[in-house]
Design brief:
By secondary structure, the protein is of the alpha+beta class. Helices cover about 20% and strands about 35% of the residues. The chain has 2 helices and 13 strands. Helix 1 (about 1-15) packs antiparallel against helix 2. The two termini are about 20 Å apart.
Length: about 210
């Protein structure tokens, strides 16, 4: 009876200690019309409670690019140096990854170009992460561990001396919880139960 009870206790404790996480991916294929035409631009885009917008200059917008331009329907901030912003209506979130594709023929195209992402966490602190954008055809996926509990993410389109880019497939998740005594206690209880079960399962020496 003891091994079964220990298994139940361990599973319950570990399940309660590890939070449920739901991922959302912002993709833009739904913007394509049945005839494959696309709207020329968007001032904002919303999906599943998340909102993409732009700031600077007062006239910023997203260009919507056709599938043949990079292999997927994607968005591009349409002005040099303008900033894309991403927020969640009513709460914090995790910014997990984004797919980026350089646009050749704009700017002086240094190799590589550093693209800076900025996040504002729930306590109002700013977190930074730079990625290197190479002139490689197609999309490259960039993953992040720095933005686990943010209220806003922003990044700038390149200036005239940089590499402009389009983006797609933004993966987002629930905010990572801060460590609390209760979940840690449950986790320790689960590990102790597992150790007790293993010890009870060992044959008794004769």
């Amino acid at each position: 009876m003891l091994p079964k009870f220990s298994s139940f206790l361990a599973g319950l404790a570990l399940a309660l200690a590890i939070p449920f996480s739901h991922a959302t991916t912002l993709e833009f294929g739904s913007l394509a019309n049945p005839d494959n035409s696309l709207p020329p631009y968007l001032t904002s885009y919303s999906q599943d409670g998340f909102l993409l917008g732009t700031r600077n200059n007062g006239v910023d917008a997203f260009d919507v690019l056709r599938p043949e331009q990079g292999g997927a329907v994607a968005l591009q901030v349409n002005a040099f140096g303008s900033v894309a912003t991403l927020s969640r209506q009513g709460g914090a979130f995790s910014f997990l990854s984004i797919s980026l594709s350089p646009i050749e023929g704009y700017g002086d195209n240094p190799e590589p170009f550093e693209l800076l992402f900025s996040g504002v966490d729930v306590e109002g602190n700013t977190v930074w992460k730079a990625v290197s954008l190479h002139l490689t055809p197609g999309f490259q996926t960039y993953t992040f561990t720095e933005f686990g509990n943010v209220t806003e993410i922003s990044w700038a389109q390149a200036g005239i001396d940089g590499v402009m880019h389009r983006f797609d497939a933004i993966e987002l998740g629930e905010p990572l919880p801060l460590p609390e005594p209760a979940p840690l206690l449950l986790l320790g209880l689960g590990l102790a139960a597992l150790a007790l079960q293993r010890r009870a399962a060992k044959p008794t020496p004769r």
